[in-house]
Amino acid sequence: MTAPRPPLPPFTEEAALLKVQLAEDAWNSRDPERVALGYTEDSAWRNRDEFINGREEIIAFLTRKWQRELGYRLRKELWSYTGNRISVRFEYECHDADGQWFRSYGNEQWEFTEDGLMARRYASINDLPIEPDERRIATDG
User: Fold this and answer.
1) Based on C-alpha coordinates, what's the Rg of the chain?
2) CA neighbours closer than 13 Å in the CB half-sphere of residue 79
3) For residues 29 and 26, what is the distance between their CA atoms, to the nearest angstrom?
4) Per DSSP, which regions of the chain are E strands?
5) From CA 61, how far away is CA 129, in angstroms rounded?
6) DSSP structural state of residue 10
7) What tens digit of pLDDT does each residue of 53-86 get?
8) 31-61 per-position pLDDT tens digit
């Protein structure tokens, strides 16, 4: 069993902002195991056109993602919250093995259990090729 992951719902604005920052920090670690701990054992995702179920699939998905999305850096912004749900907008930048940079934009809808773990994550994402001098998010690679 996983320990509770504060802040817990129902969310206040302060708690929702903290939850978003904690998610951003975890994803920017590029550590699939660390990220997966924020989700329920049976968490359900839609990420673009891929459907992911459970922590093992989350870890496998994120491992593949960060093997091809190099120099990944993400920024999330709270869009709205109510009860046990939070919506965010985000953008991230990364490059492929050939050095082509991309900026990806999207929205996520999150639903949490009472112990603060994310049970559902639905992401809609669009990608834009960019030149290196168009980058807005500092990266380490």
Assistant:
1) 15
2) 13
3) 5
4) 39-47, 50-53, 70-82, 85-95, 101-112, 118-130
5) 22
6) S
7) 999 999 999 999 999 999 999 999 999 999 999 9
8) 999 999 999 999 999 999 999 999 999 999 9
